[in-house]
User: What shape does this take?
Amino acid sequence: MFSNSQIPRATIQAYLETHYRVHGSMPATLKIGEFNASLAAIHDAHGVRSSAFITACNPFSQLLDDAANTSRQLALARELSQRGLTFIDGVGEHPSNGWRGEPSFLVLRVSVEDAKAFGLQFGQNAVVWCGGDAVPQLVLLR
Assistant: This one.
């Protein structure tokens, strides 16, 4: 399914296993390929049919220090705000591999094309996109 990617298979596997946690008043834990009723409720509450889980941290899965990641995440927040997009804080955390959780945003009412563009702009290997079916999908960018 991901055989043409430049991303190492082990990295893709880690993305598939990661728990994408949405904070805020309607918390949710998104898992790739699994329907999420809480995500569907978030979509309904905001009157949207799509969202994407995006981070600016650790570009191309290369670890940066906390200050660099915070700066990158603030730049992503500014970009989303300038485009008038609503977003909710979150964190992407693998349940067992020891990789530090990455601050992220669930961006509402974003197309898969725009989600990819944000990921590419901030040097990411992948984003998680969710359509009207509330089933998160891993979208590889390289």
